[in-house]
Here is the input.
Amino acid sequence: MSDVQSAQVAAPLGYGSRAMRSADLTLVGRWLGEPHVAQWWPDREKQAQSIARHLSEPSMCCRILRIDGQDVGYLQVYDPHHEPCIAPDGTKIAHPYRDQPPGARGIDLFIGEATCVGRGHGPRLLAHVLCDLFAAGTPCVLTDPDPANTNSIAAFSKAGFRALETRDTPWGRVLVMRCDRPTVE
Here is the structure.
């Protein structure tokens, strides 16, 4: 008879999010200073001010991403059909994704905790976000990573997003990606 040791089975990780509060601005500000975030969300101070404004915007929902109850990142969900949209220079513009279906939502996010980057958490966090948005009736979800951000594009692709096109927007050149709500047959 052999001595077979049973392997420890790891419990599945819990992915989720919670509403962001103004008290979280310090945490998000710290994350904006992390090199892996600052590369794609430059000008920490300006980004922090923008996120602070988003907390009171009716077309924006700011959330803190969580893994096993630990705060690990930032998510913003927006309605591209809501007016007004404020460009980086402060002017009011029509959102560049108004060509998407009514009810569409756009998302921007980052994982702020460096220890959570490159470990497969991005697609799993995105799956959680998509599940919540689709359950609320959202027909499709958009995102717009920098075309050079291959890690972000890979995470979105693994979560079910497909590339639509590259566009020039007031925020720079982006790769517009979309994930449609699954159809029930």
Remarks:
- The two ends are 51 Å apart (CA to CA).
- Residues 15-180 form a domain with the Aminopeptidase fold (CATH 3.40.630.30).
- The first helix runs from residue 25 to 32.
